[in-house]
Every structure is written in C-alpha cells, then in structure tokens.
Design a protein that fits this description.
Blueprint lengths: L3 H8 L3 H8 L9 H14 L12 E6 L3 H6 L1 H17 L2 E7 L15 E5 L4 H10 L3 E4 L9 E5 L1 H14 L5 E6 L2 E3 L5 E3 L4 H12 L7 E5 L3 H14 L6 E4 L2 H13 L9 E3 L16 E4 L1 H16 L8 E4 L1 E4 L11
Parallel strand pairs: 1-2, 1-3, 3-4, 4-5, 5-13, 6-9, 6-10, 10-11
Antiparallel strand pairs: 7-8, 12-14
Helix pairs in contact: 1-2, 1-3, 5-11, 7-8, 9-10
Length: 340
C-alpha cells in the first residue's frame, strides 16, 4: 500500500507539502500546478489520508466552596481564575463543577471526565471514592493531604512563623491569634471538624517554643469580616491586658478586626499591631494599610491544571506535590516597640 512518501515522490514535492495541502493549511502558499500534481499522485495511488480523531479532554472540579463564597472570597476566586486561564491555554474543557457544600458527590457525573481537580479540605473518603472512578486527581489548597496524591498549595504555617519572628524582633511578646475553624466536607456534604488549622498550630507551637505560652491567646470563629468583629469583641471583653499584636487568619477577618478595634476607640498600630494573610485588594487601602502575606493564588490554579494534564498524558506515575511560594508584605499596621 502506497504511503504519503510515495505520493510526495511522484508529485516532486516534500512530504510536508503533501501533508499541508491535504490538511488544507491556510498558511501554505503553493501554485495551482503543484496542487494538481499532488491531486494526481493521490488519485494514482488511491491514497487515503489517515483520520485523526481529536479527543477533547474533559476535566471536573470538586470544590468545598459555595458559589456565593467563591464570588465573595478573593482567595478562592483567584484560584478559580487561574484554573480557567490554564484550561483555555491547554485547550481542555472544564465540563463539570460539583460543590460539596451544596450537593452530594455525584460520581456518575464525572465518569466521562479524564481528570479531577479538588479544591478545599475534604475527607479521605471523598478522594477514595473519586479515585475509583478516576485516579487522575489533583488536590488544591490542602497542605495536609497525603503524599500519595498530587497536590498544589502554599505553606501558610511557614508564613505564620515569618510574621511572628518579625513581630518578636520588633519587641512584641504578648501576641494573640484570631482565625477560623477548619472543617472537612465528606461525599454527602456533611461537615466534620478537621485537623487543627495550620496557621493556628504554627502560632501555638511558636509561642510555646519562645517561652511565651502564658500569652498564648486564640480566638476562632469563621473566615469573614463579621467573624473577625465577633472574635475581636470577645478578645477585648476577656482580656484586661491587651495583646500588643494579633496574627489574623486572613484579610477578610482582619477587616472585621479593624472595625471592632476602631469601634472601641483603639488605634492600629499604636495600641495593637495587626498582621494577616492573602493580600486581597482592600488590604492596601485599609487605614492603616495592612501587613499581610501575598499568595500567588492564580498560580496555584494554573499549576494544578498542569499537574493534572501531565497525569492524563501519562507523563509520570509518581505523585507530585507543588508548594507555591508566598511573600510577606510589610505595611503600616505593625509597630516597632523597640523604638519607644
């Protein structure tokens, strides 16, 4: 059976030219005579162009974040934006989104997907059940995930320690922590108390290591500005001696902390220094501007898709976990006590 090499030889052109003519390459410029020679050669050998079936790779997203929370939380919104950017670049399709906070895990809905992305803190049972349908899976934003799984995250525990070390150098000893409870969601949309949140654990361990256990003061509510107001109000009510600094779990909580502090006639950083995480847009416009941790959240989403594509293409077998770096942004919300 004649092949494309024979067609090219008879027509007196290159194999590449034959291929581009048969595939109707719009960027190819050849004469009508050349096209006729190729057509004659194709007919002479009765050559049939091989059909290439383009298979669309479908991805599914399983997330613990509700649609409303995703819209209101810049952190998760940026991760989703990174995912969509890389999906478009890789020319794959995000076919299905399952929000475990709103609906149970539907395994039938992801059977025709080649890869699965999971955002948030989920129970081990979610991964186990999902892997039975598809083992091409990447977990996003959960540093506690088993090393048997592909994952992308940033090390917020390490960032917490950087905050604390800097505050210590500035003379702070009585440092409190305000954050949110960590919960895991199972395949039936049920919430469970998960492992202790890594920022809170890092704070607690650091305080004990520095011999500051007597100042260890932790207030956990939720992850919103309203939760920050509640936690700060509780701190002010329960403590006669105010902490000189507070490490706050994220910027939305910090907004509420600011409001509560200012409502009670106190000033940042003169009375209390505040540091936080996420570097959302509003953090630089607060008065005073907020010291925080800048996280490349879009990169987290992009790298998750890249990891997943490499799994789908069978470019590797061993699990890979990527830690995206973060950066401390020091602004006006912290005071150097050593200058007093």
């Amino acid at each position: 059976m004649a092949g494309i090499r024979d067609v090219a030889k008879r027509a007196g052109v290159s194999i590449a030219t034959v291929s581009r003519v048969l595939n109707e390459d719009p960027t190819l410029s050849v004469t009508k005579q050349t096209k006729e020679k190729i057509s004659e050669s194709v007919n002479y050998y009765n050559y049939k162009k091989k059909k290439v079936n383009k298979i669309t790779q479908n991805l599914a997203l399983i997330t613990t974040v509700s649609e409303v929370d995703e819209l209101e939380d810049p952190y998760f919104r940026a991760i989703r934006r990174g995912i969509l950017q890389e999906v478009e670049k890789e020319k794959v399709t995000l076919k299905k989104v399952i929000r475990l906070s709103e609906t149970a895990l539907d395994l039938d809905a992801i059977k025709d997907c080649q890869g699965i992305l999971i955002i948030g803190s989920i129970t081990a049972s979610v991964i186990e059940k999902t892997k039975k349908v598809n083992s091409n899976l990447v977990v996003i934003d959960d540093p506690n995930i088993s090393d048997e799984n592909d994952a992308v995250f940033t090390d917020l525990a390490q960032a917490t320690i950087k905050h604390l070390d800097r505050l210590y150098e500035k003379g702070h000893r009585n440092i409190a922590f305000i954050g949110g409870q960590k919960t895991q969601i199972d395949e039936n949309s049920q919430k469970h108390v998960g492992q202790e949140e890594h920022r809170k654990v890092a704070y607690e361990n650091w305080m004990i290591k520095q011999g500051l256990g007597k100042y260890c003061n932790i207030f956990l509510e939720g992850w919103t500005a309203i939760d920050g107001m509640k936690a700060m109000a509780q701190l002010l009510k329960e403590n006669k001696e105010l902490p000189t600094a507070i490490v706050v779990g994220n910027d939305p909580i910090a907004v509420g902390v600011y409001r509560s502090i200012q409502k009670n006639g106190l000033k940042i950083p003169n009375d209390i220094s505040i540091v936080s995480f996420d570097n959302i847009d509003v953090s630089q416009f607060l008065t005073p501007s907020l010291s925080t941790v800048s996280i490349s959240t879009e990169e987290i989403g992009r790298w998750a898709v890249r990891l997943l594509i490499s799994r789908i293409k069978k470019e590797r077998k061993i699990p890979v976990q990527i830690k995206i770096s973060n950066e401390i942004i020091v602004r006006e919300s912290e005071k150097n006590l050593n200058t007093r």
